[in-house]
Design a protein that fits this description.
Helices cover 45% and strands 11% of the residues. The longest helix is centred in the last third of the chain and has 23 residues. It is globular and about 95 Å long. It folds into 5 domains: 210 residues, Rossmann fold (3-Layer(aba) Sandwich), CATH 3.40.50; 171 residues, Rossmann fold; 91 residues, no CATH class; 114 residues, no CATH class; 160 residues, 3-Layer(aba) Sandwich (Rossmann fold), CATH 3.40.50.2000. The chain has 40 helices and 26 strands. It is an alpha/beta fold. The strands form 6 sheets. The chain has a 7-stranded mixed sheet, sandwiched between helices. Strand 5, helix 10 and strand 6 form a beta-alpha-beta unit.
Length: 992
């Protein structure tokens, strides 16, 4: 394929109204470098549903010399430059969201109609019919207005020859690209241009499309919970679109590339060719004269030595650790503590932190929050003692190479992306270790010789990447990939078998039923577009998604499945067979009582009633005039609800008994494998997966016959070989049916997924010993984050109901910032990260209080602590049980009056790890152990110590097995997605 023109899409820069930060800077700098190195490059942007070419005469910043950003800001909006399409103001993210709604749904009438439907769907089921009745007239009027506006638009904007009333959008789309052109986007997802690029690619597959992916932090296991759910979902859809639509991807460094490819494999998305490109950040405009530096610093409020951290103040950047480290130094009376400067604009979920800093008298005039210009930032870099970068994670961090290019030492988080950039030049510290940050800041502030030695090494040996070099790398990548991205992608669907739980089983949740349900629950979230099927009455059928909302929404599988069984039992008593669509006694196809049929598809089933109401309100606000929007946004408030913790269930116990006879099943089954196959819903190259087992041979037989006629992939889980290897421990009939099931599973499966290495060894040995074909196996570790059922006492029952699955430690107190649950949360994360053995559950008991909403939203969205860290509101009886059965208690308060929880703990004879503050020393005397409230590492160490030393606690709990790592069901499901991709790819290679 010949590349005619290379286009750079600079929509983000052309629409951006704020300062030059992050992605905007990268887009500007790379665009200017590409223009210098490849003058033939052309520029375009998305505007009003089409793509338009931009005359370079309008882009004066392309020739901005040493300061592209300054030139861009000075000339933005001049010379007919296209105006901003997205509304931004001081309310930032809210207005961005409103603008996104307006961009996706231009019709105000349609937005109002959606608001009414969303609000109605948020009502309890029994009131939804009334809601529809009350909104009938306004919905009808809005519907008429929508139809009229569409009719008028079609009449005005299309000619009779080209009019397409069914789908006007494609006929209005225009773009300057030609077949053979290469289009590159370096921006972000805010403009909504992606669905229009989809149309461009559909019209002309000869156009090659490349996207820059800066990072995948919004999907990261350790970071996704730091963002709003809708932001995570939006980016997931964006990255999925990139994976499925783009011909190749540019990543900002090797770490983002590894992360991106990891998530593509995990979600089962295509993995286009990609390349990792280090960004610039070393060629900021640096002054040579320092004559007016002191005056400028004084205007900024800096009148002495200072340290600097640069970056938007958001929760991921972890400014909280620096604040606490700084206060710790002040509390210790440390000499020569420099001023600390946060250089960045406030971002999301930091209002509480910023308010705390501004009102903390200890840091007044010593910890400054600034939003510097480029000139001021240059002065700050040149004059700081050293820089700080405490982020939990990064893509390609620009502040690190910027600081190193000034020859400044950087104290950085010990995370892989920062090590990739900095190499051995920074001093790395664990991001959660408050006291280590304090110690390093103290050390380098008071040891100029050590600091100078580091600086000399940086100046002599560190080599960064300029924006010019970055632009050259991008250009080389574009040229090398432009001819390699023409292969057509094949769309594969994941089909998940629910025959056992949906169509057959009529009991409670036990072993394999639980596995089938929990894996389906997680796979539905990990693999967008997954579909579900079952076998009943001799035929396969697809299960409509609306009949599985109970499975998708509720993580408490036991109670959700019980409700499902109760509902359909009631229907069956009325003569309705729910299992096969359109095959009921009265010809109806009933759905679960979550939403009326007319409301079932208004929004995602996972969207809660509160979220539906919020979205409805946003739709209404987006239709208001700008002045009224600003008033509404000013008073917008979030709900502050803490999600309820899911209950636990009993673990599966096998109840099959002994004795069976071995026999050759091949001759017996062969006649059943002959004959025509029934039509199945699976497409070519689809992945079909079953985690159930079948007493009935027919489902597997139909799979085998269908695979002979058209190609799809199949994998069956074999949990173990105990019915075959130990027949005396199972029912007599178990051996016969399980042997047939295992034999058929081998014929059907491309690869068998075994429940661990031992099961795989046993299974393949059985196949060899019986002269069967030995099928490749893949071992998997199942989830173990659900406790076994016990009925020892009422106490144990109550503990199970509250989610206690084993030994646990307890923290009691209102969920507010003063109680400092954040330190305990971070200490617990550190234990998980280091794979400390025998980690007990951590239980927070208390009602929501002040300045804690953000923290507890983060905790509830952090998958790493799901099922391990519980947030409960208890009755007195439940609290009594928790105190009596916990291993020990934690009290991490920053300060107290006369604490009630510490004497409560001591009254129950429970040891307490306690904050080292005077009021708690008075109460606890020498009966407890004291730890600085922000010393995350120390909290983690002492929790680990007392959790594993029963002699110190005088507890009667048994030791937890050594070398045990808890695998969650979500991790298990994620591993399955990796296996699915392996199966489909290996089979495709075999066919090739």
């Amino acid at each position: 394929m010949k590349t005619n023109s290379i286009w750079l899409d600079i929509t983000t820069s052309m629409q951006w109204p704020g300062g030059v930060v992050g992605i905007v800077r990268a887009e500007l700098e790379i665009a200017a470098a590409l223009n210098r190195q490849f003058p033939e490059i052309r520029f375009s942007m998305f505007s009003n549903g089409s793509f338009v070419e931009i005359d370079k005469a309008q882009l004066q910043w392309l020739w901005g010399g040493d300061n592209i950003a300054e030139k861009y800001l000075a000339t933005r909006g001049q010379n007919g430059q296209i105006a901003t399409l997205v509304a931004y103001d001081q309310n930032g993210k809210i207005n961005e969201y409103l603008s996104k709604l307006a961009s996706e749904t231009p019709s105000r009438f349609l937005r109002l109609h959606r608001a009414l439907m969303l609000a109605t769907s948020a009502l309890p089921y029994r009131y939804q019919a009334l809601g529809l009745a009350l909104t009938w007239l306004p919905r009808k009027l809005l519907g008429a207005a929508i139809r009229l506006s569409r009719f008028l638009r079609n009449q005005l904007l299309t000619t009779p020859a080209t009019k397409q009333p069914q789908a006007p959008a494609p006929s209005l789309l225009s773009y300057p690209y030609k077949s053979g052109d290469l289009v590159v986007s370096l921006g972000w997802l805010d403009s909504g241009k992606e669905r229009y690029y989809t149309q461009v690619k559909q019209r002309d597959p000869g156009i090659t499309l490349a996207y820059m992916v800066y990072d995948t932090i919004l999907l990261g296991e350790s970071t996704h919970h730091l963002y709003r759910p809708q932001e995570e979902d939006s980016f997931r859809n964006y990255f999925k679109w990139i994976s499925e639509t783009c011909d190749f991807i540019l990543y900002g460094g090797r770490s983002p590339q590894r992360d991106g490819e990891h998530y593509q494999r995990r979600f089962g998305w295509p993995t286009p060719p990609s390349i990792a490109i280090p960004y610039g950040g070393t060629d900021l405009a640096k002054k040579t004269s320092e004559s007016d530096d002191s005056e400028l610093l004084k205007r900024l409020g800096i009148d002495g030595p200072f340290v600097l951290t640069v970056g938007t103040i958001e929760v991921r950047k972890n400014h909280d650790t620096l604040y606490k480290a700084y206060v710790s130094l002040l509390e210790q009376g440390t000499e020569n503590v420099p001023i600390m400067v946060f250089a960045g604009k406030p971002g999301w979920r930091t209002a509480d932190l910023i308010d705390t800093i501004k009102r903390d008298p200890r840091v007044a005039g010593k910890l400054l929050i600034l939003a510097p210009s480029d000139k001021e930032l240059d002065v700050l870099y040149r004059n700081c003692l050293f820089t700080l970068l405490p982020s939990f994670y990064e893509g390609w961090s620009l502040p690190m190479p910027e600081g190193l290019s000034y020859g400044k030492l950087c104290l950085a988080s010990d995370v892989e992306p920062l090590r990739e950039i900095g190499g051995n030049f920074p001093d790395y510290i664990h991001p959660l270790d408050v006291m280590a940050w304090a110690e390093r800041i103290k050390y380098y502030s008071n040891n100029p010789d050590a600091r100078r030695q580091k600086e000399e090494n940086i100046k002599a040996n560190w080599q960064g990447t300029s924006w010019e070099k970055c632009g050259a790398d991008v250009l080389e990548a574009l040229r090398s990939f432009s001819e390699a991205a023409t292969s057509r992608r094949q769309s594969r669907t994941l089909w998940i078998d629910l025959t056992l739980s949906y169509a057959v089983w009529r009991g409670g949740v036990t072993g394999i039923i639980r596995s089938e349900l929990i894996l389906a629950h997680h796979l539905e979230k990990l693999v967008p577009g997954a579909r579900f099927f079952a076998f009943h009455e001799g035929r396969y059928f697809e299960i409509p998604r609306e009949r599985l909302t109970w499975l998708f929404e509720d993580t408490d599988v036991n109670s959700a499945y019980a409700k499902f069984q109760q509902h359909w039992k009631a229907l069956e008593e009325q003569g309705i067979d729910h299992r096969i669509p359109n095959f009921s006694a009265n010809g109806t196809s009933p759905v679960l009582p979550l939403h009326l049929p007319s409301l079932a598809h208004v929004a995602s089933p996972a969207l809660s009633p509160a979220s539906r109401l919020k979205t409805a309100a946003a739709y209404v606000i987006s239709t208001l005039p700008k002045s009224l929007q600003e008033i509404a946004v000013r008073y917008a408030k979030s709900s502050g609800n803490i999600p309820a913790h899911a209950l636990t269930d009993e673990e599966y116990k096998r109840n099959l008994k002994a004795a069976a006879n071995r026999g050759d099943v091949r001759k017996e089954l062969q006649p059943l494998l002959d004959g025509a196959a029934q039509a199945l819903p699976f497409g070519r190259d689809d992945m079909v997966f079953s985690a159930g087992i079948n007493w009935d041979q027919r489902p597997m037989i139909e799979i085998i016959k269908a695979k002979r006629q058209h190609s799809f992939h199949f994998a069956q889980i074999i949990y173990d070989l105990t019915p075959l290897n130990t027949p005396h421990l199972h029912a007599k009939e178990a051996f016969d049916w399980y042997q047939k099931f295992f034999y058929l599973a081998g014929l059907a499966s491309d690869k068998i997924i075994y429940g661990g290495e031992t099961a795989m060894i046993d299974g393949q040995k059985w196949q060899r010993d019986h002269q069967w074909e030995v099928i490749d196996g893949l071992p998997i570790k199942f989830g173990s984050d659900i406790a076994p059922h016990t009925d020892h006492s009422k106490d144990q029952q109550m503990l199970t109901e509250m989610g206690i699955t084993g030994p646990f430690i307890l923290s009691v107190g209102t969920l507010e910032i003063r109680k400092n649950h954040e330190t305990l949360y971070k200490a617990y994360l550190k234990l998980i990260e280091e794979k400390i053995e025998n980690i007990p559950q951590l239980v927070f008991v208390g009602g929501p209080g002040w300045k804690a909403q953000d923290l507890f939203e983060v905790i509830m969205r952090d998958e790493r602590v799901k099922g391990r860290l519980l947030i409960l509101r208890t009755t007195d009886q439940q609290l009594d049980v928790l105190y009596r059965h916990c291993q020990f208690t934690l009290l991490s308060s920053l300060y107290e009056g006369w604490s009630l929880t510490l004497p409560e703990s001591l009254g129950y004879g429970k040891f307490c790890l306690t904050s080292d503050v005077p009021p708690l020393r008075e109460t606890g005397r020498d009966l407890v152990e004291y730890i600085h409230p922000w010393d995350v590492v120390r909290w983690a160490e002492r929790i680990a110590f007392y959790s594993s030393h029963t002699d110190e606690l005088k507890q009667r709990e048994k030791r937890i097995q050594e070398e045990w790592h808890i695998i969650t069901w979500k991790e298990c499901a994620s591993k399955l997605t990796t296996y699915f991709q392996l199966i489909t790819e290996s089979n495709s290679e075999g066919k090739a």
